[in-house]
Structures are given as C-alpha cells and as structure tokens.
Task: structure prediction
Amino acid sequence: VCGDHLQMCEWRKYPSPMTQSLIDNDVEQEAIDALMHTMEGSVESYRRYLRLKAKLMGLKKLGNWDIVAPLPKAPEKKYTWEESRREVVAAYKSFDPEWAAWVDEMYGRRHIDGEVRKGKRSGAFCATWLAGKSAYVLQSFNGQMGDVYTQAHELGHAVHAYLGGRNQKPSNYEIGSCIAECGSVFGELLLTDRLLAAVKTMEEKQAVIATVLDEFGMAAYQVSARVFFEKSMYDAIKAGKFLDGETVSSLWTAGRDKIYGDAVEWLPEMKWEWTMKVHYYIPNYRFYNYPYVYAQLFVFALYRLYKEQGKAFVPKMKTLLAAGSSRSPTELAKDIGFDVTSENFWRKGIQQFEELVDQLESTM
Ligand SMILES: [Zn+2]
Result:
C-alpha cells in the first residue's frame, strides 16, 4: 500500500507523500511541519506528566498498560442525570449564555440517548440535523465523571453543528477533521475549570486533571508517534529498504520512543502494535493521523487564548465555529490573529497542557 502510494505521488509530481492528505484536509505543509516540530520539541512536558502519574500510582515507571489507567485513589463520585445536566450547562454558561441555552435545549428536547440498555452500541457520537435545527447525541450514561465529560464533549459537537449549520450553505457547513474538535474539547476544558473550582479533596483534583491530560496525551502525543512512524516508512521505501515485519516494527518503536523516551516500559509484543491499526492498510487514505494532533492542539491553543483575552474572545470563537468549511483552518486562525505556520501559535496549546501538569504537580 505504501509503495503504491509513493508511485502515485511520483506520477502526480507531489512534493511529499503527505501532499494528497494536505489537499483533503485543506491545510499546508508548513503548518503541519510547525505543528509536528512543536510536538517533538515538547515531549518532555508529556514525559513529566507520565512520571508524575507513575508516582501517583505508586510505581517506579508506568507500563504501557498503565498509560490511560484511572488513578487508584480516584474517588468513586457518581453523578445523576440532573447533576450532569447542571454541571455541563453551567460550564458552557461560564463562556456564553447562548451556547448554554442550546446545550440545555438538547436535554429539554430529550435528544440525548443516555440510557444503558442491552444491545446498545458502545461509544458516543453526535448526529446533526438539517440546517442546524438540532442534533442528537448517543452515549451510555453510567454516572461516572467520564460520562459527564463525554456529555460535555458531544454537546460541544452539537453547538458547533448549530453554528455551522445555521450560518453556512449545505455545500460548506461540514466541519473538516482538523477543526472538528473545536467545540467539543473546548467544552471539556470549560467543564474542567468548573469541576476544579469545586473539588473538595486532592484526590478529586488529581482525578479531574488526569482525565484531561490522559486524553490529550493519547490524541496529541501518541498520535504524533504515528505520524513519525508513517513518515519513516516512506523514507525507508525511498531508501530501497525491504519492509518485512521486523523492519516495520523497528520503525514503529523508533517513532514511539521519540515521544515516550524512557518514561514508559513496553511489553516486547507491543512492537507489533502497528499490525492492529487498520488505517495503514486503507489504500488512498494516507496520514489519517496528524489531523487528530492538529485538532487537539488547535483547541488547547484556542482555550489558552480565551484565558488570556477573556470575554473579548467569545465572539471570535463563535465566528470560528460558524464558519463550517467555508474557510480553511489557516484562515480561521488568521481571523483570530494567528499564523499556524509559526510554532508560537502551537506553543500556546502546549502551555495550556503544561499549566494542567503544573496544577497536578502542585497537589503532590
Ligand atoms: Zn469528538
């Protein structure tokens, strides 16, 4: 599949194996280079978090099976449906009353299928309705803190769809993958600030912060390792290497170690982890990965800007979400005064991450 892709790139005179995906995602190579440099340059921040987490778990070092494990002393706090509604709506309200009203309307219309029942599919998603009329959310609500986060996340997608659907034409209301998490993860960060302001114990505080940092770690850092891996495969083919299983595995672990360094202990079998990633076998769908990193760091950077600019940022954020796909991610960032080809913008996202790591460290 990779060899065919390189051949196609040559015929089409694409400058890089990433070009096709850049066209699909409406982004530029310079932006992705700046993004990936920022990720590579900030690995120590992630490793610092992983070492703190090991300490909280009473371990010398995390095993790969511990990376997203819940903290052992996390309180078993349960939320009722009404409590979850109150927290999520209030979190959105702290940012903008109109957003909060839309979120509350989703509960009022009973458009959130949260019931746990036999045969229901797992996971969660938000399905949008014609012209931003409303949306529907599916999840299985068990009253855990993670379920409240999922609710805030999916309702953020609903807000994003309301704004895009109502302001754009059917041909350009759809949201591209690089900016797909702007509403959802922003909502999660609003919820985080609300929950942190109300925590009563250190363990509770640690549990809230670890939930957010684990998610960021997976979507931004772990997926970055996969970008490095995929790049190195094309380089290896170009250099005339034969990609047998062991060679691919060594490229996989090299990409992985660039992110995790010595902060995590891996089972030897994990060198074969790439075989489970279905994306690598899908022809004509290369570099599925960096849009996840983009989306995650983009929204963390936006949240940082909100923290810096306060209420002045609210209309900018609403305009951004209302743009659908009528403007590229680069133009959207430019509208709020930022250049995505500069590492300065992406660093803002890392600062937001680091601030949470600092907060965690201060509890220990
Ligand atoms: Zn999402």
Observations:
- DSSP finds 14 helices and five strands in the chain.
- Residues 153, 157, 181, 184 surround zinc ion (CB under 6 Å).
- The mean pLDDT is 94.
- The chain has two domains: 2-73+213-291, 81-200.
